[in-house]
Design goal:
289 residues, single chain
Length: 289
């Protein structure tokens, strides 16, 4: 019996070692591209083709150039445009998603189930299939020129956000209906129940919704390129980074491209770190049935 227990412990130990080795390999595969981009952003050698993996010289000129050399690519303007678009799109998208999910979870009305089925079917098609039609609609109402391009992109990113209600609805379905009923008996309206009771109990969901709503516009290239076209003063960082890899710029801007890739990851990381506290608090303090 003792021999059998020792054999089981040894087998379990070998299994744990194998699992940790696999996880370490996967972690290295995931970290390797990130580490390479960071090292390239500090590389002093120009060009996209070098003979060594590690930089021969280190410099911060690649970062300073992004904010000082604005003759060809105005990175500060692109960064500002993207930040404005992402913030407003995030606010609107999160509101639309949470509101639609709450209504479909708590209210009962005609065409409710057909609407959810239709939304599910529409979600199977990628959004860029409609980008040409969306562009001509925006052009017809005069939103494809000048500073109105920002408004056009905000409408594109947030207009159809409510179709992605499925995850939020599933989360709201786990909140006991008795909580809503007790609040309404005490005199709360549906809006008060939603804002003062349901949302405070849904912090993990809000964190997830805000992060996804912010990251979409922040990294999108297709819609931004189609709508911005040649309006360079309205470019987003995705378009700017893409232009740095064009054949006329890649030799001199490649290392700055890596620096820009590092910089655009900072707002997402800061947002996640800021919201992580609320995510953990929500997971530990929410009342669920």
């Amino acid at each position: 019996m003792e021999q059998k227990k020792l054999g089981m412990k040894a087998a379990r130990r070998r299994s744990n070692i194998a699992v940790h080795i696999v996880l370490a390999i996967l972690a290295a595969v995931w970290v390797f591209p990130v580490l390479w981009v960071v090292m390239t952003s500090f590389r002093g050698e120009r060009g996209s083709y070098v003979s060594t993996f590690f930089p021969q010289t280190l410099t911060i000129d690649n970062y300073t150039r992004l904010f000082t050399d604005t003759t060809i690519l105005n990175f500060p303007q692109m960064f500002t445009n993207t930040l404005i678009i992402s913030i407003f799109s995030c606010i609107l998208s999160a509101f639309f998603v949470l509101s639609a999910a709450y209504c479909l979870s708590r209210l009962r009305f005609k065409m409710r189930r057909p609407f959810m089925n239709m939304a599910m079917i529409l979600g199977l098609f990628p959004g860029f299939m409609s980008m040409i039609a969306v562009y001509f609609i925006l052009k017809a109402v005069g939103l494809t020129e000048g500073s109105l391009i920002r408004l056009a992109l905000i409408l594109c990113y947030s207009g159809g956000a409510a179709l992605g209600f499925q995850i939020a609805k599933g989360f709201f379905d786990t909140t006991p209906f008795a909580i809503d009923e007790a609040a309404m008996i005490d005199g709360c309206t549906r809006w008060q129940v939603f804002t003062r009771i349901t949302l405070p109990l849904s912090k993990p969901l809000i964190v997830y919704t805000v992060l996804t709503a912010f990251m979409g516009p922040w990294v999108d290239f297709i819609f931004a390129k189609v709508i911005c076209r040649a309006n360079a003063d309205q470019y987003t960082v995705a378009i700017g980074l893409w232009r740095m890899l064009e054949k006329e710029y890649i030799d001199s801007w490649y290392t700055s491209f890596a620096a820009g890739a590092v910089l655009i990851s900072i707002p997402i990381a800061l947002l996640f770190l800021k919201l992580q506290k609320y995510y953990v608090d929500g997971m530990s303090g929410a009342v669920k049935g």
